[in-house]
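User: Fold this; tokens only.

Assistant: Input:
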Amino acid sequence: MKFNFKPKVTKDREATNKELNCIQETEEMLAKEKKLPPASQMARDIATTHWKSLKSWLRGSQTITTTEEAERRWEICKTCPKLLYDETNPDTNKKDGRCTECGCFMNVKVHYAVAECPIGKWEKHCGCQTMCDCENGNCDE
């Protein structure tokens, strides 16, 4: 027994105005949509941040920033147009803000001392307690 599930076109027709309007509205909506970076870029960013945190910890430097600094960073992020505030964090199941530049959950990233804003709105600050080769208290490599 042979099954043929392909639909057969019985009549050629032009798209209706309603269908054309729907297509145009969808294309406009997609053009305005803020997209997250590719998963490879997000993985690279989080791996780099964790690597820098590990190196900072091994040097005896601060890996988590102060509450005041994290709050200052978060206030900057909340005013940024690059912040998507409708993404759900899989760890907390809460709606957290994600950056469309790096893809990070920014309310978490602001707590890393060695983390920095991908568009330069705030910088890393390690708060070194040791003699490392950092400039102005910012551990880099």
